[in-house]
Amino acid sequence: MIRKSDRAVVGSADFKGLPDSGGLVETGLDGFASQKLLQRCGFTEWKRGETLWWIL
User: Partners of 9 in the beta sheet?
Assistant: First the structure.
């Protein structure tokens, strides 16, 4: 992840595969702290089922 204001690298994310045709990708994040991190990075919860889905 790159902060827009100064282009500094501030984090990374692990993906479980390539994006699908709609641009969705599954991450290895779980837990409350990870959800708060996704929100701070601009993601919003998209769908809730057996797992949570987030979209940017």
Answer: 2
| Residue 35 lies inside a defined structural domain of this protein | yes
The tens digit of pLDDT for each residue in 17-35 reads: 888 898 877 777 678 888 8
Q: Tell me if the pTM is above 0.85.
A: no
Transcribe 35-49 into DSSP letters: HHHHHHTT-EEEEES
Cα–Cα distance for residue pair 23/34, rounded to 1 Å:
21
The residue count of the chain comes to 56
Sign of the Cα torsion 8, 41, 56, 50 reads positive
Q: Does any domain span residue 1?
A: no
Range of the domain at 42: 29-56
